[in-house]
Amino acid sequence: MITIVFLSFHSENHIRRHLMEINLKFPIIVVDNSLNFEFKKEIEEQYKNVEVIIPEKNLGFAAGMNLGIKFSKTNYVFINSPDVIISNNSIEKLVNKISLIDNFALFSSKTLDDVGGDTSKTFFRCVIIQTKVWSGCIV
Q1: 40-62 pLDDT, tens per residue?
Q2: Cα–Cα distance, 59 to 133 (Å, whole number)
Q3: Contacts by 92-96 with C-beta closer than 8 Å and gap 24+?
Q4: 12: which DSSP letter?
Q5: At 82, which helix (H) or strand (E)?
Q6: Burial of 18 by CB count in 10 Å (0-12 exposed, 13-18 middle, 19+ buried)?
Q7: pTM for the whole thing?
Q8: In the chain, what are the domains?
Q9: Nearest Cα to 108, choosing from 82, 97, 116?
């Protein structure tokens, strides 16, 4: 099983779009660095498998993602920035691929820009992390 972790900072509309478009069979954690308690209430009432975590302060990207990973209860975590669009069934395809690999710490998909250019080699914004080998920090 895999948990999807989003980090949000005034990205409520992006998060809403993701929740409407992605397969909600996976648990989802949203770390909301904008500290929006109304958003937390709205999302958790509408989606039973989504947990919105509000830290005491804006933690930034790395610490925010680390917090989301810490709250996950699955062997794998898919981290994603809210402005990255997830294509249909891409998470399922990644899960199928990682089930064939025993030993990995991080697994990334191909990432394309708005015009179809490959940004995968320079821009890791959506990756799968194996939680049992995660050292507790993204830098």
Answers
A1: 999 999 999 999 999 999 999 88
A2: 23
A3: 92/23, 94/128, 95/2
A4: H
A5: none
A6: buried
A7: 0.81
A8: 2-130 (3.90.550.10)
A9: 97
Owner of token pair 């996976």: 26
Give the H/E segment covering residue 69.
Answer: helix 60-71
> How many CB atoms are closer than 10 A to CB 8?
23
Give 30-56 as a 3 state SS string.
EEECCCCHHHHHHHHHHCCCEEEECCC
Sequence-ordered list of residues with C-beta below 8 angstroms from that of 22, at least 6 positions apart, any chain: 4, 86, 91
Tens-place pLDDT, residues 94-128: 888 878 877 766 666 666 556 666 655 544 455 56
CA end-to-end distance (rounded Å), the chain: 25
DSSP 120: T
Helix (H) / strand (E) containing 79:
strand 76-80
